[in-house]
From TrEMBL:
PANTHER family, A to Z: CYTOCHROME C OXIDASE ASSEMBLY PROTEIN COX15 (PTHR23289), CYTOCHROME C OXIDASE ASSEMBLY PROTEIN COX15 HOMOLOG (PTHR23289:SF2)
Taxonomy of the source species: Bacteria, Pseudomonadati, Pseudomonadota, Alphaproteobacteria, Hyphomicrobiales
Oxidoreductase keyword on record: yes
Gene label: ctaA
GO BP terms in the entry: heme A biosynthetic process
UniProt keyword annotations, A-Z: Cell membrane, Heme biosynthesis, Iron, Membrane, Metal-binding, Oxidoreductase, Transmembrane, Transmembrane helix
Name under which the protein is recorded: Heme A synthase
Length: 361
């Protein structure tokens, strides 16, 4: 797996006692934080339905927004040619358009800046010989992943320019999941480069349990993208009942059945809720199991922290639903999902690092 390759590329803690990789770690954590900021702006862009306001992709010249009334009018006229304007937003004035344009422009600008913030320090670190080849190559792979994320973004936007009035939920899920993988990879590499370790026994079972938790978080992020893509959170705003029942009817009305899993708003929201219940039960099981098998010293201190974050995420998710998806709560809910996955990957990195050191003691 990609993260496994990155882990193997990281030098062991005891080979760099002077911690010359500290600037690299800070840089990687900063990049991960910047990805999180882009994610939050992307969430606002989606919730304000701003994502289709820029109908062309100009990787270089698109950095500069319209600077005069003529340029603004040209952008507005291009937007007026797509279905979202004629079907949903025909009431818009130029001033209304400027609002949605800003969020999409900012989202794209931050994506471009991410590439700059990666390649410039990366080049400096190479010149300084701070990055050995077996670390530099995987990091450059992350740069490629970031560029691919930009292509996915345009692929997603293009799905709403001809027939749909919003972007495809399938492409939105691909875009968000790729962002999650980039965020997790950056966090994992940074954490793996932490110097020093306490010899502590870590079993394969515990590592495997953490990987399962991480997979559940990534799957839930993807499921959340389908909820967002279908605006499924705007309906069925009750809890714990959904449409008046714990298991609502109408979840299999589409044919073939698999379409319900991705295109039926009722089914998609139910799946998102069910995965949340499963994650909650699973993290509580891990906490209980570890409390009976050594407690929460050292690396296992991550578990109660993760349990607390999961609890907060559940409360935030329910509040977001009951209040019909206000932007502040929805963006916070999405960001906390990334932080949960990031904390889990840091937990895995710590276990792998400690496990490696223990084997050499």
């Amino acid at each position: 797996m990609a993260l496994e390759a990155v882990h193997n590329a990281a030098p062991s803690a005891d080979t760099r006692t002077n911690d010359s990789l500290r600037p690299v770690r800070i840089w990687l954590y900063a990049l991960a934080g910047f990805v999180l900021v882009i994610l939050m702006v992307g969430g606002i862009t989606r919730l304000t339905e701003s994502g289709l306001s820029i109908t062309s992709w100009k990787p270089v010249s698109g950095v500069v927004p319209p600077l005069n009334e003529e340029q603004w009018q040209a952008e507005f006229e291009a937007y007026q040619q797509i279905p979202q304007y004629s079907v949903v937003n025909s009431w818009m004035t130029l001033e209304d358009f400027k609002f949605i344009f800003f969020w999409e422009w900012l989202h794209r600008l931050l994506g471009r800046l991410l590439g700059v913030f990666f390649i410039v320090p990366f080049t400096v670190f190479l010149v300084q010989k701070r990055l050995p080849r077996h670390l530099a190559m995987p990091l450059f792979g992350l740069f490629i992943l970031g560029g691919f994320q930009g292509l996915l973004g345009w692929w997603m936007v293009s799905s709403g320019l001809s027939e749909l009035t919003s972007v495809s939920q399938y492409r939105l899920a691909a875009h968000l999941t790729a962002a999650a993988l980039l965020f997790l990879a950056l966090t994992y590499v940074a954490r793996s480069l932490t110097p020093g370790a306490v010899p502590q026994l870590v079993g394969k079972t515990q590592v495997g349990q953490a990987w399962i938790l991480l997979v559940l978080f990534v799957v839930q992020i993807a499921a959340g993208a389908f909820v967002a893509g279908l605006d499924a959170g705007m309906g069925y705003n009750t809890w714990p009942l959904m449409d008046g029942a714990l298991i609502p009817s109408g979840m299999a009305v589409m044919d073939p059945f698999w379409r319900n899993l991705f295109e039926n708003a009722l089914t998609v929201q139910f799946i998102h809720r069910t995965i949340a219940y499963g994650i909650t039960a699973y993290i509580l099981m891990l906490v209980w199991w570890q409390s009976r098998n050594g407690g929460f010293t050292g690396v296992f201190g991550w578990l109660p922290r993760l349990a607390i974050l999961v609890g907060l995420q559940v409360v935030l998710g329910i509040a977001t639903l009951l209040m019909s998806v206000p932007i502040s709560l929805a963006v916070g809910h999405q960001a906390l999902a990334f932080l949960l996955a990031g904390s889990t990957v840091a937990y895995i990195a710590d276990m792998r690092r400690i496990s490696k050191v223990w084997q050499t003691v």
